[in-house]
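Supplementary Note 3. Input sequence used for the single-chain structure prediction.
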Amino acid sequence: MQLCLLATLATTFAYQQTAASELVPNLPKLNRRPAVFAQIYPPDNHHREACRIIGNIKGNAALLAAFSFSALTAKELPGGGATDPMLQQAYVIFACLTLAFELVAVFVGQQLLYRMADGSFGVSIDGKPDPERTILGIMLSNYKDDFSTVRFAFLAGIGTMMCTIAVRAWATYEPPLATAVTCIFVVASGVMASSNRGTLFEFERVRLLDSQTVKESFNEADLNADGRLCAGEIRSALSRCGLAVGDVEELMTRCDACEETMTLDLEGFQKLVALLRDECYVNVSE
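The predicted structure, written as discrete structure tokens, is reproduced below.
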């Protein structure tokens, strides 16, 4: 009963937050000027979809938090005093971790919604909206730390939740059935890890191709910090994004690479990124 009540409350809260992000009036540009940006811009579809993404994560995190809170209200596992004390302690710790992770996801997600509502969402460095940027690119560029925290906390909570259920299975069922439950969660974890690997590749690809994070990507790829990128460094940077390019040297030549050292400076790297973005030159690797 308590779990159902908490789940209902969490679902209602998540729905209200998501709906609130969509009910944004189409206001004209405001006259006041903030300290950082030259002008405040009204919310657009990019802003609404970004709020929907964060709202969905918050809603799911609230449901997992309700599950972990219900698990913690049970003073002991089935079996009473006969339960192995180590299993009892592991169960409580994993349930606490799940609750903590998901509450972090809910709280930081709410703060992120506030930050995205300051009128600067999608504004580039020069203080103007850039319609060619993607929603994910804006979030990874302008709100990287908060978005990464929400996502990490949510995924970590899923992992500790599965550990909680596995521990409960070992305390409740016979070893053969408990082993089967554990194996199911191990397989599920492998599937989610594989899917998350592809998502991380996508995140890195978006950051690489986003016009506002080119310099950051250049500095990350410049392993020897000499201000120029060789073919190996560029190939390594592309591989981190899950991108495969056949002839890197030929691509560098098209971007005005230095003929003597076959390297690219920041301006040449910007041309390379523009070439990758405009011509869809690369294929996503498996």
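Residues 1-6, 12-38, 281-286 have pLDDT under 50 and may be disordered. The beta strands are 243-244, 283-284.
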